[in-house]
Amino acid sequence: MDLTAIQALAAPHFLDIFGAFHATPEDGCASGTMVLLSPLEPGFWAHFQNQPEFSGPDPMDRWSTRVIGALASTLGGTAHFPFGGPPYAPFIRWATRTGRAWPSPVGMLVHDTAGMMISIRGAVLLPGQLDLPALQASSPCADCAQPCLTACPVGALGPQPYDVPACHAHLDSPEGADCLTRGCLVRRACPISQRFGRDPAQTAHHMRHFHK
Ligand code: SF4
Ligand code: SF4
Questions:
Q1: What CA–CA distance (Å, rounded) separates 187 from 200?
Q2: Is the CB of residue 156 below 6 angstroms from any atom belonging to ligand 1?
Q3: Distance 116 CA to ligand 2 centre (A)
Q4: Which protein residue has the closest C-alpha to ligand 1 atom 1?
Q5: In the predicted model, what is the mean pLDDT of residues 139-145?
Q6: In a domain, 137, yes or no
Q7: 167 CB near ligand 1 (under 6 Å)
Q8: Is 205 a domain residue?
């Protein structure tokens, strides 16, 4: 089994490999190869809307549990999910351990292909150490004009710690409609996010979940 074979199994479910790393007990899990999975774009949202979990509570989490649970079983691994806690698995640490995600200037992670449109749906821990590809060594933020720092119209997300109440207050106002329906302006300002191809309807779904 290698990452290419795992990618081929995940792709029909519109899942992609976010990244992978050789895990040790210091990562808060058993030793092995941890493979993180996230939406394959473009096309994830159109696929997800036709899944049985789409109607009903917590559709994305229930779908992730079913699909990634089945993938883990097929691969002889163990499924892990970023929801369902407490306790919560340390997915932010795991994301940075892949070498494909870094803290951005506004604090949240930025990924080499998803930008700030990160939505890790789960992970599979496989026994043993799979061969992993050599990776880009540094964050894309070093060579960027950093528009994420100034994109929030109320300064809720910027160089200072995230002001969650200020963000929700803006979303409650008429001026917040753009963020609610098309997504956080900070995440959208990132040039990598813009290339990623996520359907704005998926972003609106996440915003409704965040601001309910
Ligand atoms: S959702 Fe809108 S108000 Fe909230 S942090 Fe993002 S840009 Fe700012
Ligand atoms: S806008 Fe630039 S600095 Fe900000 S997260 Fe994206 S790549 Fe990094």
A1: 12
A2: yes
A3: 8
A4: 184
A5: 95
A6: no
A7: yes
A8: yes
- 12, part of any domain: yes
On the question of pLDDT at 150 being above 80, the answer is: yes
What is the secondary structure of 107-170 as a DSSP string? Answer: SSEEETTTBT-----EEEEESS---------S-GGGGS--GGGG--TTSSSSSSPP-HHHHHHH
Cα 1 to averaged position of ligand 1 atoms, centre (Å): 42
- pLDDT tier for residue 1 given thresholds of 50, 70 and 90: confident
The identity of residue 158, as a single letter, is G
pTM here is: 0.94
Give me 204's structure tokens: 């609106």
Query: Domain for residue 118, yes or no?
Result: yes
For residue 171, which atom of ligand 1 is closest to its CA?
A: 3
How many domains, in total, are found in the chain?
1
Q: Is 179 in the pocket of ligand 1 (CB under 6 A)?
A: yes
Residue 164 identity:
V
Provide the domain limits for residue 166: 3-130+143-210
